[in-house]
Write a structure and sequence with these properties.
- The protein is an alpha+beta fold.
- It has helices spanning about 30-35, 55-65, 70-75, 130-140, 150-160, 175-185, 260-270, 280-285, 395-400, 455-460, 475-495, 505-515, 520-530, 540-555, and strands spanning about 90-95, 100-105, 110-115, 115, 165-170, 190-195, 215-225, 230-235, 275-280, 290-295, 310-315, 340-345, 355-365, 380-385, 405, 415-420, 425-430, 440-445, 450-455, 500-505, 535-540.
- The chain folds into four domains: about 10-160, no CATH class; about 165-295, Cysteine proteinases (Cathepsin B, Chain A), CATH 3.90.70.10; about 310-455, Jelly Rolls (Sandwich), CATH 2.60.120; about 460-560, Recoverin, domain 1, CATH 1.10.238.10.
- It is about 25% helix and about 25% strand.
- A six-stranded antiparallel beta sheet has the order 5-10-6-7-8-9.
- β1 (about 90-95) and β2 form a beta hairpin.
């Protein structure tokens, strides 16, 4: 049985500010608000991000981290926009949303009160890139109010297209230092925070000058020789500056006197105000939570820092067909969507004696912020992983999972880094309660080669006409469908001639004919237009195509 889920307020790094009132506020153009509006002055810095009357500290912490990487920033905030050259009263920004980058265009009218911008603003009174970015993100999510409350990882992902993972530091994995080092080498974004126990703790300062409920960034690691032993250090940054750690390894602590002067100077050379070093063990004691946003290949494609292999599935939970709930609902759990992955290569870490494959599973529910106006919010979600590909109810009743999400939680995304021996596994994503409807995207990131295959039986039954009209497959019908899919898999592998994992339109035509469907040129063109993506047909679309043909041929003609 699964434990009770964790409520999102326990994970939030958002200060509980008052929400905007329902009073209609003036939205003047920035040309009307100031005589000399500027988009960006002297580059984007953390001082451009001052919080206003909106509880979106989580978003602003992500924006502050974005300013540390100019190329990532320009992906979100396209270069060359200004109030001077080619000004047309509009600006555009780009955000990652559930597998693709979308362009959001806004005008330059911002909500004000008594002539002052209400929400995020720059310390420079006439610089507006951060305020316009916040407005574009609010448009993407339906309203400013939809941004109240959240996790920094949500902003990280929407700014990079990456995948995030979260660690509770009181039970950190033994190789967390290595995990952080790999993430920094790849250019990932890292954040950390100290949990609060009540609203009174929010932004209270510890006696060593750490702020509770506040989002910090992790910017570096270093091992040094200290008194004849190796000391592991970690560099942390307060995006608001000024308030810094005052314990061991802080800026003026005596520990630095034990190091070689050149090494000490090198470690301090690139530090900014608000940035400090501390021992890794002290970091684990003082902070509660670490968030890592691993960048995908499209976020840093030029320098090759990111080497994750990405598998992506889009799915849905629908009441009565695919919304089975978690294992606490044994009679319906098996109807959840199911996805097969094959882990092929074990890790090559020389320090690791265990033969296993590292991978990261991330389950994200779509567009839930938009449902707040209807009284809904994030569902509580998670996933389980099984060692085999059996699909029947009895299998799940008698077998436990070999891995699963650490907990079910009502965040937009739940993710976990896992290690399993090479082999075939089945991932079952679900909501905590049965019958809850939502769309989702499931992503699997592997450090080594892997293969994937979707278990289509739930989605395909919606396309196949059932004989008894009940919208359910009987055991005989189920067996017939399963045998067809196995046969079609053999055909797919045979005609994927270059073994690329997808077929060209020519290969697809031969494969469709081999499956028993003789079509004219016009129908072949229609199928390619319908099922090809970027001129390639993957196994998912190939099976959907054959199911549709099977249904049509069974109704109108005879299949050979």
């Amino acid at each position: 049985m699964y434990p009770c889920y964790i409520p999102v307020w326990m994970l939030s790094t958002t200060r509980p500010l008052s929400r905007p009132s329902n009073v209609i506020l003036p939205f003047p153009s920035l040309q009307e608000l100031t005589d000399d509006p500027q988009f960006i002055l002297g580059g984007a810095t953390r001082t451009d991000i001052c919080q206003g009357a909106l509880g979106d500290c989580w978003l602003l912490a992500a924006i502050a981290s974005l300013t540390l990487n100019e190329r990532l920033l320009h992906r979100v905030v396209p270069h060359g926009q200004s109030f001077q050259e080619d000004y047309a009263g509009i600006f555009h920004f780009q955000f990652w949303q559930f597998g693709e980058w979308v362009d959001v265009v806004i005008d330059d009218r911002l909500p004000t009160k008594n002539g002052e911008i209400m929400f995020v603003h720059s310390a420079e009174g006439n610089e507006f890139w951060s305020a316009l970015l916040e407005k574009a993100y609010a448009k993407l999510n339906g309203s400013y109010e939809a941004l109240s409350g959240g996790s920094t990882t949500e902003g990280f992902e929407d700014f990079t297209g990456g995948v995030s993972e979260m660690y509770e530091l009181r039970k950190a994995p033994r190789d967390l230092y290595r995990i952080i080092g790999k993430a920094l080498d790849r250019g990932s974004l890292l954040g950390c925070s100290i949990d609060i126990t009540s609203a009174f703790d929010m932004e209270s300062v510890t006696f060593k000058k750490l702020v509770k409920g506040h989002a910090y960034s992790v910017t570096g690691l270093k091992k040094v020789d200290y008194q004849g032993q190796v000391e592991r250090l970690i560099r942390v940054r307060n995006p608001w500056g000024q308030v810094e750690w005052t314990g061991a390894w802080s800026d003026n602590s005596p520990e630095w006197d034990e190091l070689d002067p050149s090494e000490r100077e090198d470690l301090h050379l690139k530090m900014e105000d608000g940035e400090f070093w501390m021992s890794f063990q002290e970091f684990l004691r003082q902070f509660s939570r670490l968030e890592i946003c691993n960048l995908t290949a499209d976020a840093l494609s030029e320098d090759g820092l990111s080497h994750w292999n990405t598998i992506k599935f889009h799915g849905m939970w629908r009441r009565g067909s695919t919304a089975g709930g978690c294992r606490n609902h044994p009679n319906t759990f098996w109807i959840n969507p199911q996805y097969k992955i094959t882990l092929l290569e074990e890790d090559d870490d020389p320090e690791d004696e265990e033969v296993a494959c590292s991978f990261l599973v991330a389950l994200m529910q779509k567009d839930r912020r938009r449902y707040r106006k209807q009284g809904q919010d994030m569902h509580t979600i998670g996933f389980a992983i099984y060692e085999n590909v059996h699909l029947k109810k009895d299998f799940f009743l008698t077998h436990s999972s070999c891995a699963r999400s650490e907990t079910f939680v009502n965040l937009r995304e739940v993710s976990n880094r896992l290690r399993l021996p090479p082999g075939e596994y089945l991932i079952v994503p679900s909501t905590f309660e049965s019958g809850q409807e939502a769309d989702f995207v499931l992503r699997v990131f592997t450090e080594k080669q892997s293969e994937t295959e979707v278990s289509f039986l739930h989605s395909l039954t919606q396309q196949i006409p059932q004989k008894d009209g009940t919208a359910r497959l009987g055991l005989v019908e189920f067996q017939m469908l399963w045998n067809k899919i196995r046969k079609w898999l053999v055909i797919y592998r045979e005609y994927d001639m270059d073994k690329s994992g997808s077929m060209s339109s020519y290969e697809m035509r031969l494969a469709v004919e081999s499956a028993g469907f003789k079509l004219n040129n016009r129908l072949n063109q229609v199928l390619v237009a319908r099922y090809a993506e970027n001129e390639a047909i993957d196994f998912d679309n190939f099976i959907c195509c054959l199911v549709k043909l099977e249904a049509m041929f069974s109704k109108y003609c005879t299949v050979s």
